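ok so for the tutorial part 2 we go from a plain amino acid sequence to predicted structure tokens. step 1 is just haveing the sequence, like this:
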Amino acid sequence: MLTAPDAQGIDLDRTAVLYMATGAEWPETKILADEFMIPLLRQKGVRVVQLARNGHLQSDGFTVLDDSRRPEQLIARGPWTLWDDQESVGTVPQVAGTRKCSLWAKGDVGDWWLKQVFGGRPFRQIMGFNAGEEGRRFSDQITSKMPGRTGEFPLIDWGWHR
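step 2 — the prediction. this is what the tokens look like for a chain of 162 residues:
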């Protein structure tokens, strides 16, 4: 998508890549992102917006950790991490089923930002669900209530697995 954006109907000047910092990514994720993705996004001048929750409640809001077309690194942790939240409510991360942790730590934060920025205007949201996550596409299509949003799932469509 970055090397041949026209083939995907993407205008990089109007593209924003959202990253929600959970404080719980695999160390390899940050290493690989800093080595490969961040330099490529910076080279192409793509807007990278890095967000994180401020606390357990929606009313605590979120923080924009970085919003740049020249990002230097992936910011792995914000003011309130997934682990902070797990400890505060006495639970453990969910790795199967509805992935409520991902919805709370990533989906909600991204949706808050998207609502502020787009305010109901039409936009394409390209999700990185891999080909083994067809159920997540289905759930997203059923549960997304954001006005103007069209969800797309290219990794599933291309058959790309982890």
